[in-house]
Amino acid sequence: MNISIISIGKLKEKYLKQGIDEYLKRLSLYAKMEIVELPDEKAPENLSEAEMEMVKEKEGKRILEKISDDTHVIALAIQGKLRSSEELAKEMDRLATYGKSKVAFVIGGSLGLSDAVMKRSNDTLSFSKMTFPHQLMRLILLEQVYRAFRINRNEPYHK
């Protein structure tokens, strides 16, 4: 399986980079992993609705340029589907079984994902109704993808 995580924003925190590197190393046994880091759109704090949509559209355009037609896209969004680790594992297994060898998880910027990215997505995923920094979501997502592979292979992993 070829899995990419397409994310808006640069990762700056050393401790998050270390955690991400650790899970990328672990995941290399199961899949070809790629992290695509795209620049966020610079914007002032107080934006109008129209300005917020424009920022999301610009970021969305960058995201869509990185997605090929044969890629199964899973958008991370607060309003996405809540799944257990076992349900995510089952979905990953189903994708692999039915020939979806390219999977992209998409993490938007601080304002979320554009309508165009949501329309292009084949599925959505929510980790919580809470808001998390998108940099932290990368680490959480990688851990859950790793956990999914361990579950699917009946390999032990802490609960």
Automatic annotation (TrEMBL):
<comment type="similarity">
    <text>Belongs to the RNA methyltransferase RlmH family.</text>
</comment>
<feature type="binding site">
    <location>
        <begin position="127"/>
        <end position="132"/>
    </location>
    <ligand>
        <name>S-adenosyl-L-methionine</name>
    </ligand>
</feature>
<comment type="subunit">
    <text>Homodimer.</text>
</comment>
<feature type="binding site">
    <location>
        <position position="108"/>
    </location>
    <ligand>
        <name>S-adenosyl-L-methionine</name>
    </ligand>
</feature>
<keyword id="KW-0808">Transferase</keyword>
<keyword id="KW-0698">rRNA processing</keyword>
<dbReference type="InterPro" id="IPR029028">
    <property type="entry name" value="Alpha/beta_knot_MTases"/>
</dbReference>
<dbReference type="GO" id="GO:0070038">
    <property type="term" value="F:rRNA (pseudouridine-N3-)-methyltransferase activity"/>
</dbReference>
<dbReference type="GO" id="GO:0005737">
    <property type="term" value="C:cytoplasm"/>
</dbReference>
<protein>
    <recommendedName>
        <fullName>Ribosomal RNA large subunit methyltransferase H</fullName>
        <ecNumber>2.1.1.177</ecNumber>
    </recommendedName>
</protein>
<feature type="binding site">
    <location>
        <position position="76"/>
    </location>
    <ligand>
        <name>S-adenosyl-L-methionine</name>
    </ligand>
</feature>
<dbReference type="Pfam" id="PF02590">
    <property type="entry name" value="SPOUT_MTase"/>
</dbReference>
<keyword id="KW-0949">S-adenosyl-L-methionine</keyword>
<dbReference type="InterPro" id="IPR029026">
    <property type="entry name" value="tRNA_m1G_MTases_N"/>
</dbReference>
<keyword id="KW-0489">Methyltransferase</keyword>
<keyword id="KW-0963">Cytoplasm</keyword>
<comment type="function">
    <text>Specifically methylates the pseudouridine at position 1915 (m3Psi1915) in 23S rRNA.</text>
</comment>
<dbReference type="InterPro" id="IPR003742">
    <property type="entry name" value="RlmH-like"/>
</dbReference>
